[in-house]
Fold these 2 entries.
Entry 1:
Amino acid sequence: MGDTHWKYNMAAHLVDSHPNWELTASKETRASMDSKITLTPDEEHRLGVPVTQPKEPS
Ligand SMILES: [Zn+2]
């Protein structure tokens, strides 16, 4: 489909729409994909997406 695949939801998108991509991709491709779709802590902070660090309860 023509939906936009933002970096922060790509991992979820792959699971939803391309569940077999890891089976058909080479080891090199999987490693490359991982590095591209994994947010660094700095990126998470800038995007306001608390992927690895849940917000403290207030
Ligand atoms: Zn897709």
Entry 2:
Amino acid sequence: MIQPAAPNITWDASPNFWPGRSGRQPLAIVMHIEAGTEAGTDAWFANVKSQVSAHFSIAKTGEIRQHVQETDSAWANGAVAGPDLSIPWLKEAVEAKVNPNFLTISIEHEGYPDQPMPAAQTAASLALTAYLCARHNIPADADHIIGHCKIDSVDRGNCPGPTFPFRDLIEKAAAILNPPAPAPAPDPAPAPAASSTPAPDHRTQVSLDGVTCTIDFGCKSVTWS
Ligand SMILES: [Zn+2]
């Protein structure tokens, strides 16, 4: 898995979080839809009375804000109702009664569940997701990039809603993180094989009356010995 560069992120602190993760690591990224505006969500997260937050929110413009450090637990995914127990880590968490907030990174998206996201927002969501997957060693697949509805299908069944592009997002994040191996470079042209044929020997010897004569046809010399 390669580590993509961090997208531009504006810090916008929320007081609503637990410090730390109860000794655990984030295992999954949970997508939300704000069902409202970015300004309204930012104000809601900044208000201690709301008792809600997310690690990140993404405006329709593609601007990314971070409200809670990834090492801390945002208050986004705590209520579990009708969870999808086909997701192994979620099944384990439910059985062990571990609050999903300890195990997840949450991303809010400005807009409404039945409205497709603008291209700038989709691109920002992809860049942030790929960055977070690599940073926290989270696989880019449908068990680890999920909707809020997978944790609470009762009260949050429409979060982030039917138009959220999970398939496209997961495929593109996986392609960013695990690019296909480049085609191998062609082998360099083989060096000419060293000739195994010995250099022709032009010499020959003749004997004449006890005298040996070496005749070198190559240089046309004659040596008597
Ligand atoms: Zn939600």
